[in-house]
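Problem 3 from the worked examples.
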Amino acid sequence: MNKTLSISKRISIMALALVILLTIFPNINARAEVEMGCGGLEFAEWGDIIIYDAESGGNVIGKIYQYESFTVITRDVTYIYVDYSTSKGAKQGYIHIDPEEWGGRSDAVAKVKTTSNVYYGRNGYGAKYQKAGAVYAGEYVAVIAVSDNWAYVEYNTTGGRKRGYVPFYNLQVSLIHPDEYKSIYNDYDESYRPFHETYFFGDKTVYSGPTDLYAPVGSISDEFVFEYGDPVCIGPYKAQYIEYYVDGTDHELKSGFVLL
């Protein structure tokens, strides 16, 4: 009897030890954190994209619809790991296509180091830009451009993808090549603004990105605005980046895109 109890006791102790070990060291084969690689901003220009929960396939967990944007976190020979927007917040998953189809990148992917406000422009250059939102520590953003310690990024919200400006030092950027970045749209101080003034006729919705799939950020109606850069074309969409003064404020500015 004592021998039987001894064996049972040993088994119980071993089982308890195993539970403790698994608690302290969770499944070491599971990918705890995906390393950022050559990534950045992409669009689903060729059709809807199915998202899976595993590198090798697995279950379907979502879809990115045609002309929606998403962030490439990393890529391998047979898959691309992406971050995309849903009505319940950001999600990550795998696209099973040939990564070569997406070409090279001149932008980057970053992880937010410190929760940061997002603004409609680079504050501190003679202009007052309103707050556009926030990005939170640990989330991914696509870095589109960098200038004077400000990064122009695209990020996820429950209302759709948005763009804005955050302090560059708040980002952990992978594979950064500053000389390859496109210029931030308004890379000038306040004194250059009058040279970009133009008049828009009629009512226009202003979107955070260059399609109406992005979150709307405001509107303009028969007023002067400031245009920067060339029109952006995504599939059937053609949009112009603008800045404009917000009515009822002390010359506070917003920025975004109007469809042409």
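Problem 4, a separate protein:
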Amino acid sequence: MDIVCLDLEGVLVPEIWIAFSEASGIPELKRTTRDEPDYDKLMKWRLGILKEHGLGLKEIQETIAKIDPLPGAKEFLDELRSLTQVVIISDTFTQFATPLMKKLGWPTIFCNSLEVADNGEITGFKMRCEKSKLTTVKALQSMGFDTIAAGDSFNDLAMIEASRAGFLFRTTDAIKKDYPQYPALESYEEFLAAIKSALSA
């Protein structure tokens, strides 16, 4: 039995931190997992910048409320979900993801959670499990699923490598160059066709 495991940001919705960087006028916050493979290091650095500027969850959620799925993403996801089981595995946080899941028709998502003080300051974050994307794919496989995985960043590579089929979607030139064994797709039409082909293989 197949299950498709998708990354969220950059694949179905715009990068939340890039949107917030533009809204807040803080260019440093444009740094994402495409630039920094160490997620723990990246998040601690982000929280330091938020603290320095006196920004908290409320300000980020105000930006997220204005974010829509990438053009064609919901239609792609709807069709994919009519063909097979789909789960979104993301390193984002429940407090960020919920409004976006509503716009995507409430797909299943496994993500992390933020630690937030009463005044709205984000004081920390709690990862759902260690190496969350790889661990989740391995757990699904242990339950009898064949996984097909796709993403755009460094933190997606482990789940792609561990899956029966894997794809890169709208990734960077550097990742394409370093991982030429994975098809690098740019449109939802070719993405859907590639997954359909993997499902029938």
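Solution to problem 4. The radius of gyration is 17 Å. The first helix runs from residue 16 to 24.
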